[in-house]
Structures are given as C-alpha cells and as structure tokens.
Amino acid sequence: MTSPPRWRRFDEWDTRPLRHDRFAAEDPEAGFATFHSPWDPAPSARVENGRVVEIDGKPEADFDILDSFIAAHHLDLDVIDEAMAMDSGEVARMLVDINVPRERLERLARGMTPAKLTSVVSHLSSLEITFAYSKMRQRRTPGNQAHVTNAKDDPLQLAADAAVAVALGFDEIETTMRVASNSWANAVACAVGASVGRGGVLFQCSIEEAEELRIGMAGFTSYAETVSVYGTEAAFVDGDDTPWSKAFLTAAYASRGIKARCTSGASSELLMGFHEHQSVLYLEARCLCLQRAMGVQGTQNGGIDGAPLTVSMAGGMRELMAENLIAVWLGLECASGNDTRVSESEIRVGAKITPFLMAGSDLLCSGMGSIRKYDNSFNPSLFNGEDVEDFLALQRDLEADGGLTPIEESNIRELRMQAIKALAAVFQELGLAEVPEAWMLSVAAASGSLDTETFSTGEVTRISEAIRDRGLTAVDVVRALHKRGFGREAENLLLMLRQRISGDYLQTSAILRDGKVISALNDPNDYRGPGSGYRMSEARWEAVRGVRDVQTREKVLESERRLDPTSEPWLIPGGEAGKGTDPREVVIGLSPAFGNELTQTTAGHDLIDVVLALTDGVSEGGGVPRLVRIRHTADTSFLGLTAARLSGSGYAIGIQAKGTAVIHRADRLPHMNIELFSNAPITTLDHYRAMGRNAALHALGRAPEPVIVPTEGQALGARYHVRVAMLYAIETGLVVPDAPPLDVAFAIGQGGLRP
Amino acid sequence: MTSPLDLYPISENAPDQAVSASGMPLADLTLDAVISERIGAEDIRISAGVLRLQASIARDAGRDRLALNLERAADLVSVPQDLILDTYEMLRPGRIPEAQLLKERAELLRREYGAHTIAALIDEAVAVYERRNLFRRRY
C-alpha cells in the first residue's frame, strides 16, 4: 500500500491568514523567554547607611545605568525591607483581592525591585492579570488613542480624519509623517481637524525630540510619548539616551506645558540585539521601575514595536498584559499597547483586545488606526479604520467601554467637509495655499489616500516649511479660524491653549472630557468589587449600543410585511378541511400568517412563487396537491403532521411563512419527519419544487433521494435570526388554539387550485 | 486650610492661580484677546509657579516622583529653548568627551537660572557616566 495521503485540511489551514504568523521556540539564551530566563536574577535588595547597595543580586559597584537610577530614585527606603521580605505568591493574591486597596499595593511596589515585581506577576494567570489590571489601573474612566496619518502627508485628509477620530470619541490623536519635513503641516492640519466637533482632544506629532518640542512650544500639540526607554544599558545607549537624558527631556516637556509619557515594551531589547539573555518581562520591569523613578506620569507599554515578536513566543499575550499590570501597579498611566498589529489572524486580534475591553484602560490602544492600514505611517495597528465597526460591536457585546462611540453617516459627511473647509480657510488666510473645491470633495469622500486628488508631497513640504520659518503658532491659527467664520473651532483650539496654562493635564492619566480634565486625581479608579469602579452611565451605554443599522421591530416589519391593502387575497379560505381519500393526494399545510400577514420567505421568495413551486413539484411527481390553512399551530413539525393526517396518501408538506418546510407522514411522531428544510434563507424555489416532487413520490410508494439544501457554512443565525424571531412572533400571534384547519383556494396564476 | 489636592483641577477650582509665564491670568486668555492681537507667545506658556503648584498637588496625591519631575520642569521654565536642547544633547551618551563640560553646564544652569534640581540631576549623571565610561564619542 502507498503511504497515506495528506489530509487536505492542512492544505486549507495553509491558506489561512494565521499561517503568515510566525511562532518562535523558547530559547532564553537567544532572548526568547517571556516570564523567566535562567539568566534572570533572583529578587534581592540591601540597604546600608541609607543607600541601596544591592539590587537583584548585583552589588552597587556593578550597577549599570539602570540599576543606578532605580536605586537612587525608584526604591523607597521606608518600604523596601517590608516589600522585599513578602512572599511573592501572597502579594499576587493581594493583587486580585478586592479587599486590598490599590493604594496599599502601590506603596509596596515602591519598595520592590524589577525581579521582585516580575516574580509576583508571574504567579498570575491571564484571567487574574486582567482582573488585577482592572483594579490597579489609575483613572476610573477608560479612554482610547487614535493614529491619524496618511501616505501622502496630505493635510486636507489629516484634518478630515482627525475630525472623524474626535467624533469617534478618541481622547488622544497621534500623527507622524512619511517625510520628516512635513511635520508642521501635519501638526496644523490635525490641530484644526481635531477642533471640529466636540474638540478637547490631546494631540501629538511624533518626530525627533527637538522638533517635537518646538511644535509643542508653538501650541499645536499637547502631549508626547516618544520618550523611549530600554531594559539594558547597551540597548539604552544604542537608543542614544540614558535615564538622565530621558528624565531631563521629560522635565523639559512639562516645562512647556506638554504632557509626556515614556514608551517601553517587551522585546525591544531583543530587536536591538542587547537582551543579555534575560526574559522580556524582567527587562520590561526594569524599564517601568525606571519610568516611575524619572517621575514621568505614564507609559506606553505592552510590547509596542516588539509586540509581534513577543506574541510569537508561547504565553506572549499573557506577558504583554503582565507588563501593563506592572505599569499601573507602579502608579503610572498606561497606554496599554494594542497598537502594532501582532497577527494576520482576525481571531487573534479580537482575542488580544478582549481582556482590555473587559478590564478597561487609561488608553486601550496606544494608537488604534483610525485610518486605513496602508495610510498608517506608524505601521498597521491592531485595529484599523477597516475594523472600527468591529471594535464598536465588541464594546456592545461585552457591555464594555472601549472609549469609542458609534458615528452617524449623515453627521460624518458634514463633519469631514467642515474640517477640510476650516483647514483650507486657515491656509488661505495665512497665505500658505489655495485649495480647489475639487480637492475638498475628493478628500471628503476618500476612505484613504489612494482615492484622493490633493497636494503633492512636495507642496506639503513647502507649506510645512513656511509654517515653521514664519514662526506661526496656534494663536495665529485661532485668529485665522475666527476671522473666516469658524468660531466654534477657534474656541476649541483656544481651549487647548488654556489647558496648557493650568497644567492640569500634566497629572497622572489626564484626558479631557467635555472640555474638562479628568485624571487619576479627580477620577481615581476606585474598584473594590461588584458595584464599584467604572460603570457606564445610562446615557453612555445608550451611545455605545447604538451601532449602525440596529434592527427594530418597526424596521423589520416595514420591510417584511409588504401588505398591499388594495390587492385581492390569493388564498381564499373555505370550509373546515376533511380527510382526503385520493391515495395520490399530498396536502400542503400553510401556517397561520402564510400569505396574509407575511408575504415572503427569509430568502426573499414571494410566497405565491413558493406555493407554485410546491404544487408544481407535487404534480410533476404524479401527486395531487391540496392546500390547507392550519390555524392551531405555527410549528413546522405539527404543521406537517396535521396536514399529513388530512392527506389521502398520508403524506404532506408543512410550511411556515418564513419558508421552513417539512415532509411528514400521518403515522409518525411529531419530530420524526421525512424531510426538512430548516435553513429557509438559503432554500431556493427549485428546492421547494423538488420537495413537492419527493412528497408525491413518497405518496406513490417510491423512495426518492432526499433533497439536500447545501450550506456553505454561513452564520445564518447571525444573519437572519433577528428578523426570524420578529416574524415568527407574527405567526404565533395568529395561532387560535383548537381552530380546525380550513381548505384554501389558490386564486392566482395558471396553477390555481380549488378544493 | 485647604490641601493642595483640593485645588485640582486648578482651571476649575483655583483659576486665579493659573497664571501664564507672562503673568497673564487664565481668565484673560479669551477669544477676544486673541483676535485683538493682545496675546503673545509668553502668554500661552505655563509658568514655574503653576508647575510648582501642580507639583504640590501631585505630592499631596501620593505621587512624589511626579512631583519632583514637575519641580525640575519648573526650574526649566525660564531656560531658553536652545539651551534646553543643547543640554539634552550633552546628556546623551557619547556626545562629549569628558565630564567637565557637563559639570560646567550644571553650574551654568544653577547660577544663571536657579535650576538647582536640574543641576543636581546632571551632577548625578556625571558620576555614573564616568563610572560606566559613557564619555566616549559615538560618532
């Protein structure tokens, strides 16, 4: 015998998007280790004469730049002995204990070394990490951040897309450029776009630090998150910084009224080639201790650029959540990754975001692509413009606030145009560019930059350089907006300048809602078990559940119940139906609403055509059809059995208005039918005709092949059951208990039947 | 006496204390003022006083590391942009060949701008950079 054949399922699996993903073997020596590596140190700390002289097994003389900074600025001498002496498993249990307050755990974290923090969270399962995260995260109200970029650096599209991002509810907008010199045009475009609609959104233009600080100084941007830190000295130096240069930079941003957060994440050291064989979680714990030490208010962590590499490892997604947990445990705002697209599998993508939807987060995504994937100048995000409605559906499914709000199509038309016109007016007013109407219309309609007729990248560079060289500021833009009649937009942009003076959004986890700052200080996460912590208000829940195209009874009945009051009835009821005597007879038992209240099957076939197909089929098979209206039941089995008991042959068809049909026989149990069409949405008229024919062949004592309605595996329940449930209620509403079946005359077409 | 945390957010609870770097109160930053060209670059800059107030609020909220950072920021408010960027550049690894230049920069910031917390941060960096051999050119 030849060797067994390859199972073709593997061929099919080979073509699934998942097979593009790579899965890496555990290999600590090469840096491929999630929670633990043999090269990770055991937790330890020693204090002598008021200074930390040992961290995680390393004496002070050997401290690298990270150890030195952590020893000097992170470890709290009042807590260190107590915290380090605690059993890691015991602390892990405290993290998931609703009776242990967040503040108590945060105090302990201030006395823990990176290895200690790692050892504690290693005790937790994915579920426990999720739960602990929901308890430990800093601000009560969850939020989200959008990427707004495009492949042409087109300012008109940036303005329109920024306005859409604001309408979707994003609290922060981050942009970057394909061409670095376009940064000023990007900044003005997003700032203007974000001022359309509700306004009050924090905005960042991600570029080289000096330029980013300049753009911030000019008032266009309000936060920065490019302050990257790394978990080994070699990676840090290779990244061209030290803890002191970053601490200085963080203070520099704050000195200009700009909110800042650091960026770190698993596997960045691995990507940079300086991992020292240590686990990605241990290295990230070092980064996070460092960030607390620097006094930055928050972090963007959870993999970020290293996320795809991290999830290539077994337990990688759990690791990413664990590092987010350490971040919030250390009292940091957490923009929790869910940023870089970690997989080509939509199932893995959905699974990745789910714990965060359930737990909430300061910013669920540290950049969800609000634009098309190809327009994302950072690289595709976990969720992108293509998938925004999927995210909205998940919020609705889980009754979870992911920070986004469904948008109305008609509002968005106006909004995009308003943003484009506002930017065009600013450009004209400031003598930067003239925008033809054709470009405005093109960009307003465009889903992405492949569709747009607009500025060339070179023209954008010229505009950008003019903004920079002329020293234009947000104040000039406010003036231009006001002068050209964009009063609300001018006010919204001014609001951001006012916030900058008060510095309120420099505190931990600050965002703006309704023009007011909410942060961990005035909106602290107070989760202490069921009934506490964040819950959506009724108004918020109403907004979240209002996704596009929600079916209501009115809408369904309007489209399904196509009653024409002027039309003649085509099923004329006669007297009470008796038992037939013709041995070739096949009774067709019609449900209560069939052909009167309801006129089409869920597949969209007119019930007249369905009756014709059935009766023609019966005739073709050599049988004699007879129509009966059944009134005491709407259930397919009982429709069929009732009809069969009236049939001269003992065989009958029972059919509901929605198209579900059955062949039955008089002597069978109700649910032991002969043939059943249960998937009405994919049942064709040919199938009904074949069912009629088979019923007749059974009546004649033959044994026909059953009719199979082939399914391609569509989720018919998802597609049809909302309608089915509403329509079936009409059928059951017409049921009259004990009402006998009536003979029915078919008063239409060539095949008209009379009893 | 009210605690600093009660003043937060100061734009709502203590707007009279929200004064820009030019000394202009928040209430004066209106659309009318912008339109009539009464608003300059210094008027939309945060002040050292506000940063110190936010630092005391952070400390009151149990966030002493953030408070220290905001106090360092307050020390940098009056430091010109170019000097900030130049100092940042000097603090990056391998930018300067020896510690002395950085020590002098710390002294300058202390002397000219009263930026004591920043100077202390730089002095601390110098000691570690020397021990870890980071004063070597990378390009």
Percent of residues of chain B in beta strands?
under 5%
Provide the CATH superfamily of the largest domain in chain A: Diol/glycerol dehydratase, large subunit
Number of strands of chain B: 0
Number of helical segments of chain A? 29
In the predicted model, the low-confidence regions of chain A spanning at least 5 consecutive residues are: none
Q: How large is the radius of gyration of chain B?
A: 19 Å
N- and C-termini, Cα separation of chain A:
65 Å
CATH architecture of the largest domain in chain A: Alpha-Beta Barrel
How many beta strands in the DSSP annotation of chain A? 20
Describe this structure in words.
The complex is a heterodimer of chains A (755) and B (139). Chain A is of the alpha/beta class and 755 residues long. Helices cover 42% and strands 11% of the residues of chain A. Chain A has 29 helices and 20 strands. In chain A, strands 14-20-16-15-17-18-19 form a seven-stranded mixed sheet. In chain A, strands 6-5-4-11 form a four-stranded parallel sheet. In chain A, strand 15 (585-590), helix 26 (607-620) and strand 16 (624-629) form a beta-alpha-beta unit. In chain A, helix 19 (409-429) packs antiparallel against helix 20 (437-445) and helix 26 runs parallel beside helix 28. Chain A is elongated, with a radius of gyration of 34 Å. Chain B has 139 residues and is mainly alpha-helical. Chain B folds into two domains: 1-77, no CATH class; 79-139, no CATH class. Helices cover 55% and strands 0% of the residues of chain B. Chain B starts with 9 loop residues before the first helix and ends in an 8-residue tail after the last helix. The mean pLDDT of chain B is 94. The chains are: A alpha/beta (755), B mainly alpha (139). At the A-B interface, helix 2, helix 10, helix 11, helix 12 and helix 14 of A face helix 1, helix 2, helix 3, helix 4 and helix 5 of B.
